[in-house]
Amino acid sequence: MNNKEEEQQKPSIYSLQLHELKEWLTANGEKAFRAEQIFDWLYKKRADSFEEMSNLSKGMRQKLDENFKLTTLTTAIQQTSADGTIKFLFELHDGYSIETVLMRHEYGNSVCVTTQVGCRIGCTFCASTLGGLKRHLEAGEIVAQVVKVQKALDETDERVSSVVIMGIGEPFDNYDNMLSFLKIINHDEGLNIGARHITVSTSGIIPKIYQFADENMQINFAISLHAPNTELRSRLMPINKAYKLDDLMKAVRYYIDKTGRRISFEYGLFGKVNDQIEHAEELANLLKGLKCHVNLIPVNYVPERDYVRTPKDQIFAFEKALKNRGINVTIRREQGHDIDAACGQLRAKARKEELKS
Ligand code: SF4
Q: Can you tell me which residues form the catalytic site (predicted)?
């Protein structure tokens, strides 16, 4: 194995939770408390190299360097929108690329992270699934996305205040790494992002919804629903053939009962497909009595797909129809309209060759 291959084989230091780093240190003849110092360098001082960690001995820095990677992402493209949204295309050590988006809201800065290189779920409206799944991201590669964005914000003395796991990939298809990621960014010695400021969204991998409910974390949870009935959902999201809408709703009820938390439903509006008033009525019936909230998403035009945008009047009429039936609903503000904002668009455009490989 040459040096470059050896470097690639090393796990990312960002993949380790604090207790795992302590275990590694003690197994390697070091004191466990060093883990807090290393976390401080990684997440508070945001060091670029092990060499910088000046309160660790030279031998220990060398040991860390021999066993872990610290740099896992290289910024290939950084696009800033007129509304302040920044979209990053990061290159991974094996040449694949992923997208991460910084969105600016009145309540703070939110980062949308990617969990997989590509996706195998096959939602018919999504550019991220066009080349299939290439590989899962390590927990550390997900963590590093937030660290990278935080470093960009350090220049203006700003902070990442919330994280949404809604970028490329199905988080529950990479469950263990996603869970480690959540624990690392939530930990007060890590990035210290409050559970209530983290949102994870799934297309509906039912067994993992039960598992996630049993974790009993105070994280915000969203389901990508996009249809009010099973036929339409199967047309838009083939996952509905494996995990049927009825069973999905049972899992949702279990989650709400178990955690006591409200659930969000993401509903992308696709012109003349799922955006008619009868769809809103059906949706209201499906969600009746549930502790939930609906997020209506006016979809961006995806060049590779045929869906058209829902006219503004229709979006408001759909919202009103839900409200009139007692459903909590908001329309998602569009951001980064001028910079390939829909999930996977930047990657699809910049990496046409990669997607074919
Ligand atoms: S919408 Fe999400 S789950 Fe569906 S194909 Fe795209 S990345 Fe995968």
A: 99 (proton acceptor), 343 (s-methylcysteine intermediate)
* Cβ 240 vs Cβ 246: under 8 Å: no
Which of 33, 51, 67 is the C-terminal boundary of a domain?
67
Please give the positions annotated as active site. 99, 343
Check which CATH number belongs to the domain holding 47 and give it.
Answer: 1.10.150.530
Domain that holds residue 79: 74-356
- Residue 261 CA neighbour count, 13 Å, CB half: 18
| pLDDT at residue 32 greater than cutoff 60 | yes
How many structural domains does the chain have? 2
N-terminal to C-terminal alpha carbon distance within the chain: 24
Output the pTM of the full model. Answer: 0.92
The Cα–Cα gap between 346 and 12 comes to 25
The answer for residues whose C-beta is within 8 angstroms of residue 120's C-beta and 6 or more apart is 129, 132, 133, 170, 173
201 labelled binding-site residue: yes
**pLDDT surpasses 70 at 2:** no
What's the CA-to-centroid distance between 331 and ligand 1, angstroms?
A: 20
Q: How far is the CA of 122 from the centre of ligand 1 (A)?
A: 6
pLDDT digit string (tens) for 63-112? 999 999 998 899 999 999 998 899 999 999 999 999 999 999 888 999 99
Residue 110 in marked binding region: no
Distance of CA 343 to the CA centre of its chain: 10
How far is Cα 56 from Cα 52, in angstroms, rounded to an integer? 9
Pocket-testing residue among 99, 128, 136, 347, ligand 1, by greatest number of atoms within 8 A of Cβ: 128
